[in-house]
Amino acid sequence: MILPPATLGMLGGGQLGRFFVSAAHEMGYKVWVLDPDPHSPAGLLADHHLVAAYDDYVALDAMAAECAAVTTEFENVPADTLDYLAKFIPVHPSASAVAVCQNRIAEKSFLAENEVPHGPFAIIRCEDDLRGAADELFPAVLKIARFGYDGKGQARVASRDEALAAFQHFKGEPCVLEKMLKLDYEVSVVLARDEAGTVCCFAAGENRHRNGILDITVAPAQASPFVTEAVQLRAQDIAERLAGKLGYIGTLGVEFFVCGGELFVNEMAPRPHNSGHHTIDACDASQYEQQVRALCGLPLALPRQHSIAVMVNLLGELWYEDFKGHGSYREPDWSVLHAVPGLRLHLYGKHHARPGRKMGHFTVTGDNGDQVLALALQARAAIG
Ligand code: ADP
Ligand code: MG
């Protein structure tokens, strides 16, 4: 077991890393963050911020010398970086698990090989792959294999010709072509798995997106009028199985599509997940505390959820007068949110708001699902 006051390493300085730093501090650890952005939200809270690239071996050597173990909050950390650090100190999740989750081709192939339910897809490395793709895949979504997030690096294509144009627009980057599914709704599961293979699963949440970006999570998913207990339990079961197949250690997020009552894995995130933010306010232990525990070899907490929760993301457009990224830049009137009973506001301290950028979130908790959802939607309407 790695015990306080040991120093832990975090690769990535975004909001997920920031919440990890808070959880680790609460538990008596110190944290070093590596992120090239001098204003990174996690770097601002860390005991030390290494402002360097993820492949800066001088910085990695410093991290390996100071830290007892290293984790990540960002799936695009190069697998070589994780492999390099693992020569000196424990690194969780492993380079191999992160490599599967950071590349849509590897991820989809992994799901197929392990007979985990997923939607129809084709691997696209060249235009001929697109010409040979099955007709049944259209209409489809073409997604670049690496570095896409929040709907970026994706094109919805009605036909093969549109797909060819989109592939050229992506400059021939390797892609996956996914059949556009008719979604009933989406759910996700966040879990933690330790070295011995023990899994602690948070209750699945129901996710609603706007413009390809997560907007709202209702947790547990069953608090949503249209989610059944069977779907919730099956999602948790599939996520647990996946974590085992990956030999995963740490906090993992698994996104699902629900179509015609059936579940399909959409993607996996080798880190805490946006849809698990509510675990800070609605559970005995958050997804970030679980990440600390798994990294340090402490027993995982039983993640009892004591309240129904609705989480709402706050994007950068809120900082603009017309809420669309135009007009004068000003701080939203937070007093409107603080007036809502059961609401807790979390702001990430980001340097500058841009439309679509995740700047903060709020969580409303309570005992009655309908009431919590209504309050959260009212609060969102009131702030912009
Ligand atoms: P990101 O990395 O941006 O989260 P996702 O693959 O999860 O990428 O896509 C973002 C969202 O776009 C999904 O949560 C879903 O709402 C929608 N979407 C993506 N792929 C499909 C698909 N094949 N069929 C229907 N909707 C999709
Ligand atoms: Mg996603």
Short description:
This protein has 384 residues and is α+β, with helices and mostly antiparallel strands. Helices cover 31% and strands 26% of the residues. Strands 9, 10, 11, 12, 13, 14, 15, 16 and 17 form a nine-stranded antiparallel beta sheet that branches. A four-stranded parallel beta sheet has the order 3-2-1-4, with helices on both faces. Strands 5-8-6-7 form a four-stranded antiparallel beta sheet, with helices on both faces.
Structure, explained:
The protein has about 375 residues and is α+β, with helices and mostly antiparallel strands. The chain folds into 3 domains: about 5-90, Rossmann fold (3-Layer(aba) Sandwich); about 120-180, 2-Layer Sandwich (Dna Ligase, domain 1); about 185-384, ATP-grasp fold, B domain (D-amino Acid Aminotransferase, Chain A, domain 1, 2-Layer Sandwich), CATH 3.30.470.20. About 30% of the residues lie in helices and about 25% in strands. The chain has 13 helices and 17 strands. Strands 9, 10, 11, 12, 13, 14, 15, 16 and 17 form a 9-stranded antiparallel sheet that branches. A 4-stranded parallel sheet has the order 3-2-1-4, with helices on both faces. Strands 5-8-6-7 form a 4-stranded antiparallel sheet, with helices on both faces. Helix 1 packs across helix 11 (about 285-295). It is globular, with a radius of gyration of 20 Å. Magnesium ion (MG) binds next to loops.
